[in-house]
UniProtKB/TrEMBL annotation:
Protein name (record): MBL fold metallo-hydrolase
Residue ranges annotated for the Metallo-beta-lactamase domain, each copy included: 15-211
UniProt xrefs under CDD domains: yflN-like_MBL-fold (cd07721)
Organism whose genome encodes this protein: Dyadobacter subterraneus
Top-level taxonomic group: Bacteria
Pfam families: Lactamase_B
Length: 233
């Protein structure tokens, strides 16, 4: 696990990152593709923590690279899953991708889509969601974790602002593989860009992403500059 702040850790599973927020217990944010449970557990053990201490799973959105191992981890630990209601509906049906998703422009997105996304299974193992998250709700995790409903990439997408840590868990509002860039697919790219603007109304130092590298400093300003650039195009 890579330590992002005193209570936030990132586990890289190759093409996707998941996150651990440490408090009294651990909160796992996203779960990777199907079959990622062992990798996640061993990363947590390597960092001297006990995976049995995971108290809950929060899913940023339904896509199979984020919710793919939720059912398995839930089964092993008998813990609840929390997600926004709009995506929870699909999670419970085992549907990993909502009907209409659109490929973003650019060669990198074309490559990612054709090499990885097109071939991957859009179904997930159905998982029951115990708690439906709502916009602006503050969860009692790490002294206050604000839910930011950030639709566009997926209608039920949420970002998590861990306020005292000044860390934003961005999910797939955008990516940071070779610098900040729009995600490879969106259900509604205009709404997705609006959601990038929405998070910049909050203060945070660091930002982490489902795909790519963390921003370690002035992340709110960097995302704001990125948002302004998108809007001037
Ligand atoms: Zn996604
Ligand atoms: Zn993703």
């Amino acid at each position: 696990m890579k330590q992002i702040s005193s209570k936030v850790f990132q586990i890289s599973l190759g093409s996707v990152n998941v996150f651990v927020v440490e408090d009294d217990g651990l909160t796992l944010v996203d779960t990777g593709m199907k079959g990622s449970a062992d990798k996640i557990f061993s990363a947590i053990k390597k960092a001297g923590r006990n995976p049995e201490n995971i108290q809950r799973i929060i899913l940023t959105h339904v896509h199979p690279d984020h919710s793919g191992s939720a059912a398995e981890i839930k089964r092993r630990l008998n813990i609840p899953v929390w997600a926004h209601g709009i995506d929870a509906e699909l999670m419970e049906q085992g549907v990993g991708v909502r009907g209409a998703t659109h490929l973003s422009p650019g060669i990198v997105n074309w490559l990612i889509f054709n090499l990885f996304i097109k071939r991957s299974d859009s179904a997930i193992e159905p998982v029951i969601v115990e708690k439906q998250l709502t916009d602006n709700e503050v969860l009692p995790i790490a002294g206050g974790t604000r839910i930011l409903h950030t639709p566009g990439h997926s209608a039920g997408h949420v970002a998590l602002l861990i306020e005292k840590e000044k860390v934003l868990i961005s999910g797939d509002i955008c990516a940071n593989l070779f610098g900040l860039a729009i995600s490879t697919v969106y259900e509604d790219i205009k709404l997705g860009i609006k959601s990038i603007g929405k998070v910049t109304n909050f203060m945070f130092d660091k930002a982490v992403f489902g795909h790519g590298n963390s921003l370690e400093k002035d992340a709110d300003q960097k995302l704001k500059d990125f948002y302004n650039k998108l809007n001037s195009q």
